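Changelog note: in this version the structure field was regenerated for every chain. One regenerated record is shown below for reference.
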Amino acid sequence: MTLSKSDFKIASSCCKKLVYKKLSYDTLNDENEYMEMLAQGGHIVAKYAQLIYPDGIEIISNTIIEAVDKTRKQIDQNQNITLFEATVLSNDKIIRIDILEKKDNTLNLIEVKSKSHDSEDDNYNAKRKLKEHIEDVAFQTMVLREAYPNYEIHSYLLLPDKSKRTTIDGLAGWFKVNKMIDEKFEIEELPAQSVVKFKRPFVEFKYEDDPNKGEYIDKLQEDSLLTLLPVDDDVEKILIEIQQHSDIFIDILNNGITPEHYSINKNCKTCEFNLGAEKEKNGFRECWQELADIEPNIFDLYFGGAIGHYKSGWYFDELISQGKVSFWDIDTDRFRNRKGELGSRGQRQLTQYQYTKTKSEWISSELSSILSDFEYPLHFIDFETYKGAISHHKGMRPYELVAFQWSCHTIDSPESEPVHSEWLNLDNVFPNFIFAEALMNEIGTTRTPLMWSSFENTILRDILEQMDIYNYSNDNLKEWLINITTDEGREGRFVDMNKITLDCYFHPDMKGKTSIKSVLPAIWKNNPYLHSIPWFKKYEPDTEDNLNPYDTLKPINDSQGNDEVIKIGTDAMRAYHELMFGSLADDTKRRERTKNLLLQYCELDTMAMVIIWKYWMDQSI
């Protein structure tokens, strides 16, 4: 049994996960839309990287052994050559190198990553952010040195550079994921996921068959948004540690795992092998045994994992080592900080503890006065945005913000019916300033705009900065953005309903969460009178199992007879990219269907805020 780079990565977080991975246990990543989107983004960046090495040869094979043999032959038979997916096997360790350059007696190992990098950042800070990826490169460098000991080997990361701006308009449209292909190798972007559960995206270069392909590749090379970062010194510092860990992991694969290799701890909260009690193969339950059945448990506590014991380590690890994982095993004195004070986080934890114990809702006496300070009309606002490694529009940097959609429900008085307005970009233009101007024209310069968390504030603050970067002139817009946003030294008009929740509201069904997708179901499920209010009738549950308004979003049938629905922000991001530059760009019917899906999803996000506000108002009378 061999140890791959992704095996090494997952084993480094927990040795027992390596065992579950090799046994092909199901994981939360198997149906994780966000992780799948990241994986596709990684393959698009990989295709971009290959195009700026136009003489490269891809190692294509049906088996690992065949790939290893083909790689060695190419290296042995050519003085200078560039290989994609070069495969190297040594001492039970297997790697596939994104780009391997041979120049005489030198091998340059180049690891392509979609993670952003800023070449203008100071070197220490930049390298610190790339620690995990440098470990990946170190593992590959170790294997390459073992297999080719007579070569001089250098290591690099090739990354999207946030300091660069593209001169190509619609660059993202040069790369399309047209299909998914079966592959015998694992998907390294999803280290806990076996290949049978996730197919590799096939990325097509738009001008692959164009007679002027060379000219487009020349443009990519001149414009390249990628930066080659040497990491030899960083690799050298950790190489011995990487070797030691590799030896342990290989021993586990060959001889089995022992209790000395792992322990249960607070990091188990995010274990990707925890799929629920109904799954026959559940890695989390196998590790935790009967402790997995204890409800409520310590992981339900708001920011519980951050509670530290200043002499003996993290408090949750201390509890877990004693087999105390019930929510009621938590010592409430631990909510106090180093100075013995109950800060805002500790107060929230204490509130959750007390009202979970009594199984009752908590509403602060201050909520009524906060709501009464709102100036009507109220504007409940939600944004959808996109950030991608490959820029959508000329002048953009990798991962620069694109604000493509907003929804707003406006209420003129406490008894008024909410009026909905919305905006969605469907034109192939940089939309941010049009986006902000449309919202400004809709809600004006006075009264109370509301958001959930600081996200909308951050987006408008970014657009304000972009006005200077792009030399966009609109004095009214600039003044409006300054007035509505909070930044260092100024207090804006935006009111954060998430902060109000933290300060003033708790329901046991929320557990330790305050996201709108946790607060809304808790209120909606436990207050059925809301279902009959005419404003909210379209989200009325039709069954006892349908008590979350997001589950009432209507699917729309696609051309293959499949139902499609957008329920989370990741779905919206992917749908927008497909509308602009993907498979939907030239399909009128599918574009219309996807547009409607985006609109109904974003509309519910702001109606959710109205539902919560309405309930709070009713309790404040």
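Spot check on this record: The first strand starts at residue 57 and ends at 58. The radius of gyration is 27 Å.
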